[in-house]
Write a structure and sequence with these properties.
single chain; 53 residues; alpha+beta; 3-stranded antiparallel beta sheet; 28% strand
């Protein structure tokens, strides 16, 4: 799904935070931005296939 992604998790959903950090990093070679002081938000742009690690 190419395009700009913004994914938000609640502060108490640690499992979702771990999942989206790993997934965002895997698809972008760790080129994603995380913002939010209470509820984390990852923002990244997908342009194709995941990066091989």
């Amino acid at each position: 799904m190419p395009g700009k992604w913004t994914v938000k998790q609640t502060a108490n959903n640690i499992g979702a935070q771990l999942f989206w950090r790993k997934t965002s990093g895997g698809w972008t070679n760790d080129r994603f931005e995380e913002i939010g002081t209470t509820d984390p938000i990852q923002s990244f742009i997908l342009d194709g296939q995941p990066v091989d690690r």
